[in-house]
Each structure stands twice: as C-alpha cells, then as structure tokens.
Amino acid sequence: DTEVTQTPKHLVMGMTNKKSLKCEQHMGHRAMYWYKQKAKKPPELMFVYSYEKLSINESVPSRFSPECPNSSLLNLHLHALQPEDSALYLCASSQLRTSGRHEQYFGPGTRLTVT
Amino acid sequence: DQQVKQNSPSLSVQEGRISILNCDYTNSMFDYFLWYKKYPAEGPTFLISISSIKDKNEDGRFTVFLNKSAKHLSLHIVPSQPGDSAVYFCAVYNTDKLIFGTGTRLQVFP
C-alpha cells in the first residue's frame, strides 16, 4: 500500500480564518513532508519531519505552522494567509535516508484558495 | 538559480512510439535521481529512480539513463500509450529534499 491521504480536497478561506490541512500515511514511513505547488510550477519543499521532529523549514512564513502528532499523521495549520498563498498543498512520506531509498510518495493534495 | 532543468516544456508522440524526456542538473554532487508523473488535480506519482553508481535502470516500459559526465538524465517510455499523457518531473535527492525540474508535458496521440 503506497497511499497517502489528504483532507480536505478543496479549501476556500478568508485572510482572517484559521484552518488546518491533514495528511495520513500507513506505510510505516518515518519521514513526512509538506510541499507547495503553484500553477505551471514544480512542487517546492516547505517542511520535513523525521521521527516526528521538524528537521527542515525552508524559510516558510510563520502563518504556516506544521505539526506531526504521531508517525502516521501530519498537519499544516493556516492562519492569516494571503491571496498569494493560494496553491496546491502536497503531503508526502518516505523511508528515512539511512534506508538508501529516497522516493517520496505523494498524496492527492489540497487545493487552497485564499480570498 | 534552477538546479534541475527540463528544457522542453512539451512533447507530442504518437502511440506506440518512443517518448524521450530529458533533464539536466548543475551540481555534480547529486547522486540520486527520480522521475515522477503528474496528472491534473493529483499528486505526483513515483515512476523510477537511479543512483549515481548506475547508468541505466529499467522497469517495464520505463528506462532511465544517467550520464554523470554530462550531468544529464533521460526517461524513455516504450511503447508510449495514451494513458502516459501527463506532466513528467525529474527530481534530484539532496539531503532529505527533492528538488524538482520544471516539468515536461507529454501528449501521446493515437
């Protein structure tokens, strides 16, 4: 099973709202990721979690707040977003780098629109 | 500065023929490379990978070739099928990160 699930599929929020994106995997992976993809652009890394600890933050604004409650779940909390934050938000998971396998498995994404 | 480049934004191939997608990278220290396929409104799907100790890796209709001296990799799809129509991204692995190229839109026509 190589499935990563994400909810919701679509989200529309105002600039003063607080919302959360959720991601779940049951592949036993201990590394999880958040990416952002704008139209006609490649995915860009935002955050990396290894063993439920934040290991990489790609200088993401603090209005995005990640959380990893356990090894299967990853959340992205959103607050006071700007219209330019509208994008497809992708979650991914992988084995740890020590395994020698570096492929990441992606969920279907959450299409976020900030109004 | 784009570390991974796919210079062809689009490619059109007849069904049954070979599709060749190309990718160039700038850093000779990169040692693991991947290809992903992406349909609209879906996440990228992993296709095939190759480490720098090899120059070729094959999986069914998909073969990835790596030319380390040229810092170039390519994905061959043989035979191409209409269901292969999608955007293809190459990616390099760099210390827990994947750095993606800009993508090539492949269209396979009957």
Write the layout of secondary structure elements.
The complex is a heterodimer of chains A (115) and B (110).
Chain A: E1 4-7, E2 10-13, E3 18-25, E4 31-37, E5 44-50, E6 53-57, E7 64-70, E8 73-79, E9 87-94, E10 105-106, E11 110-114
Chain B: E1 4-5, E2 10-14, E3 19-25, E4 32-38, E5 45-51, E6 56-59, E7 62-67, E8 72-77, E9 86-94, E10 97-100, E11 104-109
Parallel strand pairs in B: 2-11
Antiparallel strand pairs in B: 1-3, 3-8, 4-5, 4-9, 6-7, 7-8, 9-10, 9-11
Structure write-up:
The complex is a heterodimer of chains A (115) and B (110). Chain A is built from no helices and eleven strands. Chain A has strands spanning 4-7, 10-13, 18-25, 31-37, 44-50, 53-57, 64-70, 73-79, 87-94, 105-106, 110-114. In chain A, 0% of the residues lie in helices and 56% in strands. The model of chain A has no long low-confidence stretch (mean pLDDT 93). By secondary structure, chain A is mainly beta. Chain A is globular. Chain B has 110 residues and is mostly beta strands. Chain B has strands spanning 4-5, 10-14, 19-25, 32-38, 45-51, 56-59, 62-67, 72-77, 86-94, 97-100, 104-109. The mean pLDDT of chain B is 95. Chain A binds chain B through residues 2, 4, 6, 31, 41-45, 48, 50, 55-56, 90, 92, 97, 102-109, 111, and chain B through 32, 34, 36, 41-46, 49, 89, 93, 95-103.
Q: What's this entry about, in short?
A:
The complex is a heterodimer of chains A (115) and B (110). Chain A is built from no helices and 11 strands.
Q: What is the count of helical runs of chain B?
A: 0
Shape of chain B: globular
Strand residue content of chain A = over 45%
Q: Please bin the fraction of helical residues of chain A.
A: under 10%
- The SS-based structural class of chain A is mainly beta
Outline of chain A, from the CA principal axes? globular
N-to-C order of helices and strands of chain A: EEEEEEEEEEE
Terminal residue distance of chain A: 37 Å
